[in-house]
Each structure stands twice: as structure tokens, then as C-alpha cells.
């Protein structure tokens, strides 16, 4: 039986609510990127000034919702969860699975980002555990998740190692990041309980 391809739109952890794409959250997403412009710059592609406008993120969230519905990509935005209430006006990070492939691969590319002022609390590990459990569940049934990080990004390496990702190699000039082609370490996590459909 093929996977449903549709994960839960909201996941709860002890301290976070992971919420799927919603154009109504464009202002909160924009605020996250504005607050973290310098913090994320070494790890992200170059951003135009248009990226820091609400209309850009409203359109991006609309596209993300379509990609979600079509099973091509799944993104969750991280909101603080306090006393059982979700702070929908505040985004503190993002976890996304892009380039979802089926057939003989059943793989996705993992990306993530966390607010500079919310680091060193174990929140990204908490969010990734929940999100990976969901994409490895029978609802989505991915077999493998791949992540890429710059060799000098020790914090990202530590998070992935903690979650069980295994280093598979070094890709030279892999992504154009912060104005240059950068080497990236490739790491992957496989789903030991995979129950998808490998037919093409």
C-alpha cells in the first residue's frame, strides 16, 4: 500500500509546536528571518532585499502549502509552547524536508534553522526528533533523510550525530552559500521500520 504522503500539520514536543505552512504566519516568519539575518548568513544562500518583505514570505508559504499537499516537500515552523498554549506570533526556527523522492529512493533533503537566542537548549534536537519520526511514520514512509552541512559547522554536526545520522562523505563545492561554492559534509539517517512502496 503506498504511503499517504501527508504528515500531520502540527506536531507537539514538550517545548515546541511544529506547524505546517500557513500564509497567515508570514509576518512571524519574516520577523524570524529579520532577527536572524546576520546569524544565518554564514550558512544560507545570499538573500535579496525582497526576501525581507512580508509579501515574499506570504507567497513562499503559499507555495510550501502546495508542495505539502502534493507530497513534494514538508516544512514545519517552530513556535514556543508554554503552558499548553502555542505562541503563533513567534517563530523560533524551521525544519524542512525538500526534494522528496519516491520509487526506488524514498528520500528527502533535510534543512533546519534555529533562532540565535533560542540555541543551546536542545530545541533543535527536540524538533528534529519529532519531525523525523513523522516522515518515517507510515503516513509519509520515507526510507532515508539526507543532510548537508559545512565542515566548520560543529554545532550542526553535533546535532545530527546525536540523532544517529552517519557521515557518508564530503561533497566538494556542493552549495553556493554566503557568496561562494562551499564544501559540505553529507550525512544520512535511514528508517529501520520502513514500510513504503518501492514500485516505480
Shape assignment: globular
Give the name of the CATH superfamily of one domain.
Answer: Gcn5-related N-acetyltransferase (GNAT)
Mean pLDDT score: 94
What is the N-to-C order of secondary-structure elements (H for helix, E for strand)?
EEHHHEEEEHEHEE
Number of helices: 5
Radius of gyration, in angstroms, nearest whole number? 16 Å
Keywords:
200 residues; alpha+beta; Aminopeptidase; 9-stranded mixed β-sheet; 26% helix; globular
Walk me through the structure:
The chain has helices spanning 26-35, 37-40, 54-70, 123-135, 154-162; strands spanning 10-12, 16-19, 74-82, 85-86, 93-101, 107-114, 144-149, 166-177, 180-190. It is an alpha+beta fold and 200 residues long. It has a domain at 10-141: 3-Layer(aba) Sandwich (Aminopeptidase), CATH 3.40.630.30. Strands 1, 2, 3, 4, 5, 6, 7, 8 and 9 form a nine-stranded mixed sheet that branches. A hairpin with a 2-residue loop joins strand 8 (166-177) and strand 9. Helix 1 (26-35) packs across helix 3 (54-70). The longest helix has 17 residues, at 54-70. The model has no long low-confidence stretch (mean pLDDT 94).
